[in-house]
Amino acid sequence: MVVATRPQASHRSLASALAEGSLEFSGNASTRHLLADPGVAHKRRALRTGRFPLLLAPDEHPLMPIRARRLLVSAALLGFAAGCAHRPGPEKSAAFSAAIAADSRSAAPAIAPAVRRSTPGTPFTRALPDTPFSPILVVTTQVAREDFFVHNIAGVGPRYHPTEKLYRGQRAYVLPLARNYAFDALERADLTYELIVQKPDGTRDGAPFMASLWQDTVAAPDLLLYPATTVVFHTEATDPVGPYRFMVRIHDHLGGDTRQIEHAVTLEDYAPPTLPADFDPDAWFNGYYLQPTPELALPALARFFKKLPADKRAGALPPLLGFYDQILTDNPWLLPAFAARLAAAEPDEAYALSLALGFHLRSASAAPAGLDRALWERLAVFRSHTWPSDPDAELLQPSQLDALWGRFFASALQAPVRRLLDPLAYSEDLGAAERWRKTLASASPGEAPALPDLDDPSTPLAVRREVMLRTALWSLRANARQHPLVRGYLEQTLRAGDLAPGIRALLERALRPDAPPGPAVAAPAS
Prior knowledge:
Structural class: alpha+beta
Helix content: 25-40%
Distance between the termini: 46 Å
Low-confidence stretches: 1-33, 38-110, 518-526
Order of helices and strands: HEHHEHEEEEEEEEHHHHHHHHHHHHH
Oligomer: single chain
Mean pLDDT: 78
Radius of gyration: 25 Å
């Protein structure tokens, strides 16, 4: 078993911590990887009331009061309520730095197990003194679980959806949480946990993983909505299929309580499922970010192309390409299945697979795991194609915005939404299109000049930028109206205070209730 973690960070290091990405370490091929996620130790929110006791779906937790179940229909994180607060987490500790230095030559840093920090006998209280300490365990495959907490506001967004099934290589994120924990007079909690993973044969996979759940100041204490240390779990080729039990013991050191909670996940080898006859690819596309089902991605691609008329595929491709690019990025375990299907597919499906794989591999310099040399060469034309909708290039085409929305709908991540704000920096170019049109000759007397053609290289850059600004603003406004998570991300971005004045003014105007309405970005087949 391989364990790696990152020290807790304060708000001052939030931007750099998120920019660094996850720590990943490779271990023995015969073991499963347990990787401590960077987590959100730099941020803490707690509910001000006791009416919203958990982060799970209302019908999935036995402690959920009936009244609260009704109140949580659209609550973010299945327990987010208005009035959340946060305080900085602790700075990097010397003990952690020493542990890293002592084992810098190994595959993973040697992390000292979390230990009690409070003094025994310290007076404490609880948010609900007559209610016992209650642990919560979430095992989910939602890649945006951290963004739901860091970049969102209270009261909006999707729920955590616990998973009960994993495919080999698929990642699950283990989130131990706690409700009604003890805190001292300085509002400090002292919570640690131990994670044991039990294999299908009943044996343990390695030693217990011991880490800090939260050992610092909390605000309005009742419910810890995100742990200081999370664990990323996935299996490898030699791991047996069957049920895996995640057993977490959470220690409330101040209150003197220890509780154990378990969650079972069944590991299966992936085989593309057969979709029902009434499967609606549009609905699946639009709802995927709320409850991801990557196992359906392969058969759904053929259904998309079967539904799309040939003369409408070009306009539908950008969001679809961005969608599948993100799915394959988050789920590389699907690549072998995509490759196997491509090798045997009929021409129409083979074309769809080649587009999706070629776009996904457009920046790759070598064949990734799961794709043999022959298929890599077969995809050469698609990989080397100049994709106008590439969302990683400078944003100069509306199709790039469609691809970014595809990424969001495939992940619920905040990054694609944040990147859609980039064209709003072109506010100085507002009016350029109208001024340019007045210099053009009309096609016939009495007719207005043609609208800007962004595919025409002679179209001035300022005109392109204005068109991109207006298109991005329209799509942000429309999707914020239809998808609470989009609005939550945008409002939290406004609160963060790191926007240029021009971008802030445009975004604030777009989110006003009286802003002009518009349809949201639709599924590719629309």
